[in-house]
Design goal:
The structure is a homodimer of 457-residue chains.
Chain A: E1 2-6, H1 10-22, E2 27-32, H2 44-48, H3 63-68, E3 71-75, E4 78-83, E5 88-92, E6 98-102, E7 105-108, E8 112-114, E9 131-132, H4 137-149, E10 154-158, H5 162-173, E11 177-182, H6 193-205, E12 209-212, E13 216-222, E14 225-230, E15 233-237, E16 239-242, E17 246-248, H7 251-255, E18 279-281, E19 288-290, E20 295-297, H8 302-316, E21 330-334, E22 337-343, H9 346-351, E23 356-364, E24 375-383, E25 389-397, H10 402-414, H11 419-424, H12 439-451
Parallel strand pairs in A: 1-2, 1-7, 2-3, 7-18, 9-16, 10-11, 10-16, 11-12
Antiparallel strand pairs in A: 4-5, 5-6, 8-17, 13-14, 14-15, 19-20, 21-22, 22-25, 23-24, 24-25
Chain lengths: 457, 457
């Protein structure tokens, strides 16, 4: 069995590892376009900030680790064509030659590429001018080089999604003054405005200039600096970072005849099979089955890429693994706060045909008498008609176990729990770490109290 | 509707609050034997340690709070007789008189009393001699008074359950040298020895003398000090604290004809109904429905008392609430470590007819490259035949979100999840707080790997 994998990031590596685990005789080769297999893209902000001093530490596993479990890594090999009929992939080598790899089964894990918003001037500017995107290790090195070369003291970040906010913290930690511009009228558009607003305040309290509801029109080199124009005025920065989301990198697969699905991502079933024979795909290049919506969405997340890669690796070897689905569960640390969410929000639930009610509560992370208690804001979304738990969003202090509290909700949603069921869970309690009714249960009880008084729409 | 509640701790207060919430016209009276309604017994160690400077802060709610929601508190009223036929309760007043309260519905929340182990000398020694139990605020005041009066510099704690360990930390924090003696051959008998051993080492590293597998034979006053004799030798302390568990306080209910259940606790159904008409009971005085075992056990925990009290309060008003059941979920912080567990362990699962396999894994709480990562030891117990998740135990650093990670397992167990389901959950990931495969999922995958190779028993 020759398994060929295109891509050396989360999905591709997971597929290769799983295949070798299931069949130690499988011949597994990975084509890795750059020289950084299995790097944690999510960790880039912490290298930029200086908290991870050496970039090599961002690797989930070293090249030696990967080769030790029998993965053949072809670094610097960029796949340029798949021939599904011939079961071959053509790639360029580090020397610029072309070479061809045969396969019995193929896993496509080409990932995503940064979306370039339609901003005047962006097409003409790049790393040499101090204008950056951030998706690969090479992007990271270019950004760090720019900061050094331009002796950057100010940065403008276009986009206040989770990467934008993590980078705002990272660059602030490095000593830069940061301005964050966001088109939508709040930071972190994946959480409700009621939680985004205190998050924006927290950024401001740490010296970040935050402007949302601000469409960026143009970026221009202005002497040694860069000027970013918005309807509300101009901002100057020594560097500009554009982090406005990603789009799936599908050209290779599409050229080979792969059907595309939601948002132009590669269409796969829950076994990560494409429409092409013996070709699987996983990670940021595919659409993702959503566990509550029961349909495919585009939700590129590292945790999902690992899971999908594992399914693809198993099935490429003849297995019958099924991707259980995503809830879009996410957590982001911004300075001393953590924002997290899982499942549906009010408007996404309504769009999906539910009769949602979203109720906000605030409860301490642990008993107030024990030192260090901090409030957690929780917004629970449930279906008024059935009582089903649909989603939850949390905002609290980084020490308040927010990341695992959202996971309690994620677990409950996954099993079809009602909101009331969450209040009934036997959760742990010790005064330094919780309360007899945990904050997630206070939120569930609060939801029940309010929702029973809200008329159906 | 006259609702009478015997007991002013977690179960009784929860019942009263729920009744008033459901029917603001209900006449709710609570007979509170001492003067400390709604105190957090679980918080006592943190007042003893000095971390909670004023004992009043240990109250979940003040007397004023409770009265503001319409609870009539009869402090210093100890119930001495229930007449179920006449629907009356006789109580002694603070002045030593007797008085009688009528009721339409009664909730018994008499709680538990400390178990006194059969140790020579214990019957003759008490707080005046520096020998203490610890279950009430009065016990707490007596202990603190003893520490002061005897200028205690050393303490011997008999019992290394969670209260014994929390008190070992508390007294060490106060500056005492502490010796902990435990009859069973490990500390924290509610978790597996493999996790208890590093916990004992951690206590030792903080200066606590830990001796397990040590039966205490006698306690004797020895000059100004106390001598505790074991088969392995004698230990001296200025004070002795006996914390070897509790037994349900059922005399009052039993005298009135209440049927008793497991371990002599008051027998109740899942609606918290006793066999006596219009009499409900909840909290440490009753047996508790176990969610996996599907039978009653004795599992006195504050979080459970709150939930049972809430059910009793609702049903006393004619509701049909059902106690969902306990998993024995528990967390305890001991210095810088947290031990936690939920569900069944290997031997309890085997006794219940399962074919359990328990697998140990260790994984970091978050990505190792981000500063401050610490290892979490997890032991997952699952049924070999069905793959069902039965229990989990965790040990890790206090900052490693152990308490909420055990809750993810608790949620999964509650919904009948398989171990494999845990690996499929869409849990949150951000490098400072987690990993693409969270530690709980590394544990689940580890279990699957090992269990598939273990033959059936």
């Amino acid at each position: 069995m020759r398994l060929l994998v295109i891509g050396g990031s989360d999905a591709g590596i997971s597929a290769g590892l799983r295949a070798r685990e299931l069949d130690p005789t499988a011949d597994v080769t990975l084509l890795v376009a750059d020289r950084y297999p299995n790097f944690s893209i999510c960790g880039i902000p912490y290298h930029v900030s200086g908290e991870v001093p050496h970039w090599r530490n961002l690797a989930h596993r070293t090249t030696d680790d990967l080769e030790a479990v029998g993965l053949h890594l072809q670094l610097g090999h960029r796949a340029v064509a798949i021939d599904p009929a011939a079961h071959t992939v053509t790639a360029t080598t580090p020397h610029g030659d072309e070479t061809t790899f045969g396969y019995d089964r193929l896993v496509v894990g080409t990932g995503a590429v940064p979306a370039r918003p339609p901003v005047e001037g962006l097409d003409r500017l790049g790393p040499a001018d101090g204008v950056h995107v951030l998706h690969t290790m090479d992007d990271t090195f270019a950004l760090l080089e720019s900061i050094k070369r331009r002796q950057a003291r100010t940065a403008v970040i276009v986009g206040a999604g989770y990467i934008g906010l993590e980078m705002a913290e990272a660059l602030t930690t490095r000593g830069l003054h940061v301005t964050v511009l966001e088109q939508v009228d709040q930071v972190m558009p994946t959480i409700d405005a009621e939680l985004a607003e205190p998050l924006a305040e927290h950024l401001r309290a740490h010296g970040v200039t935050v402007q949302h509801g601000t469409q960026v029109h143009a970026v221009t080199a202005d002497g040694d600096r860069l000027r970013v124009d918005t309807a509300a005025g101009s901002h100057h920065g020594d560097i500009v970072l554009v982090v406005t989301g990603v789009r799936p990198d599908v050209q290779l697969a599409a050229d080979a005849g792969a059907a595309l699905g939601v948002r132009g991502a590669i269409a796969v079933d829950r076994g990560m099979r494409t429409n092409l024979p013996d070709v699987y795909a996983a990670g940021d290049c595919v659409h993702t089955y959503h566990r509550i919506l029961d349909r495919n969405v585009y939700l590129p997340l590292g945790s999902t890429a690992h899971k999908q890669g594992r399914v693809a690796g198993a099935n490429a070897l003849g297995g019958d693994a099924v991707f259980a689905g995503s809830l879009g569960t996410q957590a982001v640390k911004v300075f001393d706060l953590v924002a997290a969410g899982t499942g549906l929000r009010d408007h996404t639930a309504r769009d999906a045909g539910y009769d949602p009610v979203t109720v906000a509560t605030t409860a301490d992370d642990h008993k107030a008498y024990y030192p260090g208690a901090t409030p957690i804001r929780i917004r629970v979304t449930g279906d008024r008609t059935t009582g089903r738990l649909l989603g939850a969003q949390l905002l609290g202090h980084r020490g308040a176990e927010i990341a695992k509290r959202v996971d309690v909700f994620a677990a409950a949603i996954s099993y079809g729990a009602s909101v009331a069921d969450v209040a009934d869970l036997d959760l742990s309690y010790t005064p330094p770490l919780g309360s007899p009714w945990d904050a997630v249960q206070v939120a569930a009880i609060g939801w029940e109290r309010v929702s029973s008084a809200v008329p159906h729409r």
